[in-house]
Write a structure and sequence with these properties.
mainly alpha; 5 helices; 64% helix; globular
Length: 94
């Protein structure tokens, strides 16, 4: 099952995907994964990985989308996660 931390990490990644070039998004995801599975979704990790990936969290749009504090609870980001979940269901992904 997906817990709140993993959902927050998904929101962070979806927002970075929307507002940053693919190369920066991929570096962001790799950085999060390198911090350990148990830390994906951690606000501090998101902010650190944004810096590592060359993403300005506050001005790129990713921060507002996911939550400026990195919490993964931004309104736009949660909506992106809902849409992503519905798309997965429509495609039969389990």
């Amino acid at each position: 099952m997906h817990g709140p931390e993993e959902c927050a990490g998904n929101v962070q990644q979806l927002c970075v995907n929307k507002y940053a070039p693919f190369e920066n998004w991929w570096e962001f995801v790799q950085c999060q994964n390198f911090q350990g599975r148990e830390n994906v979704g951690n606000p501090g990790v998101a902010l650190k990985c944004a810096t590592t990936a060359g993403i300005d969290w506050e001005t790129s749009g990713a921060g507002v989308c996911a939550g400026l504090d990195g919490d993964g609870k931004g309104e736009e980001g949660v909506a992106l996660l809902r849409r992503s979940t519905l798309l997965g269901k429509e495609l039969g992904i389990q």
